[in-house]
Amino acid sequence: MHLAYPAVLSALLFCTGLYGVLARRNAILVLMSVELMLNAVNLNLVAFDVWLSRAAEETLHSGQALTLFTIAIAAAEIGIGLAIVLAVHRNRGTSDIDKLRDTAEGHEPDGPDTDTPATGTAAEKAEATA
Amino acid sequence: MTLAAASHGFLSPTGVEIAFLLVGLVTLGAAVLTVTTRQLVHAALWLVVALGGLAVEYLLLTAEFIAWVQVLIYVGAVVVLILFGLMLTRAPIGRSPDADSGNRWAALTVAVASAAALVWVVVDAFRTTWIELDGPAAGSTAVTGASLFQNWVLPFEALSVLLLAALVGAIVLSRRTKAARADEVSRAGTPQGQQGGVR
Questions:
Q1: Which keywords has UniProt assigned to this entry (chain A)?
Q2: Rounded Cα–Cα distance for residues A63 and A7 (Å)
Q3: C-alpha B110: how far from its chain's center?
Q4: Mean local confidence (pLDDT), A57-68
Q5: Does the distance separating the beta carbons of A65 and B119 come in below 8 Å?
Q6: Strand, helix or coil for residue A24
């Protein structure tokens, strides 16, 4: 098989995931796009490992081992990421990443819609630590 | 390199290449739909198609073990987690008009530019490179297991510790503290407690 086929497919998948990360607004959709990017990298690793296992004399099968590691780390990442999104949703009532601007510079809160949950969260945090 | 190019027809694809191309088109289409559809649950279901297509691509590249791990972990576990996340954040069923943010044209520009650059570089670099798919499978369970437990034992064990830490972290993050729970119960009746319901 021509090596360009899997390489081009993985490049296109990666850019699809890149678009999703930049353009999506819901945090879970952003996580799904991150999964697409990780899968593109996995396809690259597998394709080059299969190529090198024929072309090279001695190979550690590092591509497939790294693919397994990437899959495990992606599973850990999606678990932690969803836990964070759920915690944010519980505190703010939204998983919209455009509205999470508390640490952004130069952005005043847009209105009472974003202001009220933020103060509510601060009060909640103070209550939780007390 | 020229010998390799001579022994393979450049524009006469083999059956495996045609199958790879077709499955790749399906995978890419499903991925594009995943990042463009306005229905959140449909995005998760298109993600299943994309990840399953990638598993078929792994099988075509003779990496069997990776393919089955992909089916088990991604299609089995990760997508179920994502669907649960969508349900728990009360994602609306049906079209949600604000799924895309305002900077989607900038995102499209960046994505198309990087896709063009990457495809150009990759095609230019590996124009005369072929993968030999004949002979024993490069990624059978025996081969992968042998290399994993001979050369990659220490990273493997470190990764298991990392998974454990991530699981404990996820549990700690998603556990409700007593104060937060009492607070939520006390204001469950007020409209502010249900504010984020439909969004």
A1: Cell membrane, Membrane, NAD, Quinone, Translocase, Transmembrane, Transmembrane helix, Transport
A2: 14
A3: 20
A4: 85
A5: no
A6: strand
Q: How far apart are CA B36 and CA B38, in angstroms?
A: 6
Question: Tokens representing A40?
Answer: 């593109």
CA distance A70 to chain B (A): 10
Q: Are B9 and B55 in contact (CB under 8 A)?
A: no
Q: Which of B31, B118, B177 sits opposite A128 (nearest CB)?
A: B177
The class of domain A4-99 in CATH terms is mainly alpha
Set of chain A residues whose Cβ sits within 8 Å of the Cβ of B199: 93-94, 96
What mean pLDDT is predicted for residues A62-80?
Answer: 92
β-bridge partners, A24: B100
Burial label for B136, CB within 10 Å (0-12, 13-18, 19+), is: exposed
Nearest CA in chain B to A79: B170
- Mean of per-residue pLDDT scores for chain B: 83
pLDDT in tens, A1-52: 888 999 999 999 999 999 999 998 888 999 999 999 999 999 999 999 988 8
Q: Do B106 and A68 touch (CB under 8 A)?
A: no
Q: What pLDDT, on a 0 to 100 scale, did the predictor assign at position A81?
A: 92
Instruction: State how far Cα B82 lies from the chain centre.
Output: 12
What count of Cα atoms within 13 Å lies in the side-chain half-sphere of residue B11? Answer: 0
ipTM: 0.82
Q: Which fold has domain B2-97+105-138?
A: Four Helix Bundle (Hemerythrin (Met), subunit A) (1.20.120)
Contact between B114 and A60 under an 8 Å Cβ cutoff? The reply is no
Separation of CA B167 from chain center? 20
**How far is CA A23 from each of CA A88, B37, B39, B163, rounded to the nearest angstrom?**
20, 12, 15, 30
